[in-house]
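Subject: complex prediction, re-run

Hi both,

The earlier run crashed halfway through, so I resubmitted it with identical inputs.
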Amino acid sequence: MDPSSPIQLVKGFKDILPGESELWQYIERTAISLFEDFGFREIRIPIMEKTELFARGIGEVTDIVEKEMYTFSDRGGDMLTLRPEATASICRSYIQHKMAAQDPVRKFYTIGPMFRRERPQKGRYRQFYQIDAEVLGIAGPHADSELILLAHTLFQRLAVTDTVCRLNSLGCPVCRPKFKAALSALLDSAASSLCPDCLRRKDKNPLRVLDCKAAGCRAAMEDAPMIIDFLCDECRCHFEAVTDTLSQLNVPFEIDKHLVRGLDYYTRTAFEIQTHALGAQSAVAGGGRYDGLVEVLGGPPTPAIGFAVGFDRLAEIVGATTVIPARPVDLFIAALGDTARRLAFEWSMTLKLAGITTEMIVDDKSLKAQMKQANRLGANQVLIMGEAELADGTVVLRDMATKAQRDIPVEAVLTTVTDLFSGIRNKTCV
Ligand code: AMP
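This time it finished cleanly. Structure:
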């Protein structure tokens, strides 16, 4: 490798550049305001955790833990992992800070990057972002419906209207063993058609075979038993209550009896939100109930449910129809000569501190070059000040849209500009 050649980013990682970041901020603001309406509080968790947290919390026999984690031993020999999802970390934090002792019911959201070493393609990255919501401490079905309503509303508020929520119940430790036994019997008889991964999974995590995309496995699973037919009375009642409430709340959903989730800790409600806008990577959010996880991680028995929205995919859909412009430059100061430039710099700092976006070129440039820069920045107004104008005690203020110019006395510049922009802002607020 030529030591002077530019260094590229890591495969599957990406930059979010100005132009796109405004859209990301808009999505973030929309999500945060909605979370706050629903009483969720932000939690910020580390990007790195002990590997054991994910091995225990997600399950050893999952794609994420088996193949996709960024795991390494640090200089002290500790095994660490870049977080592939947020749920396990949030539960770790809930346990570590003994939150259940004060108030077991907690509603959290977090927004940030996750890391999975998957095969990169459009809509699938190795560093991707998730908008994540978790409710801990509520077992009842209304928590499931509320959370699904929340996810649905986020898409609605962002004008993503073609989503469909696929819904299933994965049962609980009472009813799932019977289903697993029936599934395992089928898997044994269909072993010759299964892919090598599923042959390995079939004994340890047979549910995952239902999820496999390999043609042989899909064909073998066509006649697979459905977990929904094996639900115990409590799980059936819970599921019915969730679907009834969703109907009352006018949240559209479809029951998908084949839906399973890639992670081991899901119980009862599992859901995925899909959209046609994305082609192959159609899932834009996924979630479900994980009543056993907090206990598996060493905490008190705590029912819980959550979801994660794929931020990158959401940004792609929203960005196809929505442009969020960058904040425009309010004022450009075109100054000619040392004295004018010094005063212009002082004014520009004062105006920035007053909330008026003010730009200038601090080097010695021609008026033409400065006006070109003002145009490039889309400045609303330009203040033109040369040595001659200053000697006269006036500068010129040019409205870039109407091209109207007026002379302003030097001592009135700051108040005139401040008044002008507070007037413009008030008008836009109305
Ligand atoms: P999961 O945590 O696997 O349930 O994923 C939740 C959501 O995160 C998915 O519906 C996707 O929208 C998104 N997602 C998962 N993996 C990736 C990835 N590698 N790249 C981009 N988005 C992803």
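The mean pLDDT is 93.

- K.
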